[in-house]
Amino acid sequence: MSTQPAPAPLLIACALGIEHLALRTGERGGAGGPVTFVRTGMGPKAARRSVTRRLAGPALREAAVLATGFCAGLAPGMHPGDLVVAEETRDPDGTVRCVGTDLLAKELARAVPGRTVHTGPVVGSDHVVRGHERSGLLATGAIGVDMESAATLLSAVRAGERPVAAVRVVVDAPEHELVRIGTVLGGISAFRVLRAVLPAFFEWHRSLLLPRR
Fold first, then answer.
1. Helix or strand run (H / E) with residue 25
2. Which of 92, 110, 115, 141 is deepest in the core (most CB within 10 A)?
């Protein structure tokens, strides 16, 4: 009697306690396999250290990895609560192509109707990006910036071949920078969106288990 191989697990990584809270209290629809949430801590060094350690264990050695949380939007017209699906992540250490971008964008539009979903490159930084630096990153073609996605995905693929993706919720945008008091409401909006995205993540994970044509 043949047995089916166990489905690959999913590791969902975020940096901040508030992001972790949003994910853990959000709608849980069930994934294609076991799901682990990890709070890496803030910044690329913390992300690299945490993800590398988690993937070294036997339970997650072959896990798909999805980086998520909040980000700064780079393109004019972006608003807090918009979603960014990375086609690739970039930082000075390397570029990682993401898997299933189109599917994620479609499922996110279904999970969070009325929110704009942007797709494009997401760049990593080791500090909060503002003003002219934001414009410089936009000129490279990037549409979002955060401190952990690029480090998370690069660490993941260096630990072994696996599907990776990054989805971020805009909390800070060119016309809505966090230095303004009014962006407190933007943060609340982004938190609510992050609570709602798990069904899309689980659909992405299930799609990885389907036979390749």
1. helix 17-25
2. 115
